[in-house]
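Z., the sequence and structure:
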Amino acid sequence: MTSGASRRYVIGGVELTREEIVHKYLHLVKYVAGRISVNLPPNVELNDLINDGILGLIDAIEKYDDDRGVKFETYAITRINGAILDALRSLDWVPRAVRQRARELERAYQELELQLGRVPRAGELAERLGLTRPEFDQLVQRVRGTSVLSLEEFLPNEKGYEIPLVDTLKDDASDVTAEVELHEVHGELIRAVDSLSPQESTVIRLYYFDGQTLKEIKGVLGVSESRVSQIHAQAVIHLRQRLRELQAELGFRDDDPTIKQKYLRKPPPEADGKVERSLRGEVSLHGDPTGGSTASLSGSARKRGGG
């Protein structure tokens, strides 16, 4: 080893500058870094490992003694590997003892799974590791903190392109607008029930909220079961009409309540009047002057009441 304006080092009997040696043996750094990166999570960049390995190579150049007869490649690989591992340990907040116990737990899990042919139980793992159940539970709790995922990590996608992990997480946050509208619908429904006649309101509350049958409700009102069925049908019609009006105010389509539109085409006045008269039982929308829609609803309610 000689000194001068540019320091030179003897490697294999040949004098080279440090820069020349780094370029000559850079492939060793890439080899070691690539081998270590296989067992690391994807968030660890290979280039960072290579940079740490170059520092290890420079340290090997400074401390290598060609007179000892040891191949520089063998000595350099050891120093490069150590430099990369030291850099990784400096980034790890988990104590080395916990890392070691985590590896032991993983090894015991794999061995028992092969031996038993099923997923091992916690008690079996604790026995294999020579721990009591409380000690095993404490170990599992500590090991859980050693596994960390980056939300920026990309996952393979069947469509051919990768997507970040953060885009696959479920958003449990509620839709404020939907909640407000749902609360408004509930409030309007309660007010609509309260606006019904006393008999209609009683039938709705007993039938839908208390789960009573039409046969049971007739005893409360002191009327026949057929009359209860008629009252039920009239109340349902009034409530449906109020809900239609509320949906129109909120901007829902008639055929799909889950889709909103900005503008709604209002029905012509004649149609409005005909709908209103049909709801009062004065005229049928289908040309049946006996109020067929009300009879149909009454029939369905009577069938449930009979059951």
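The chain has three domains: 8-91, 96-168, 176-306. Strands lie at 8-11, 14-17, 154-155, 163-164.

Let me know what you think.
H.
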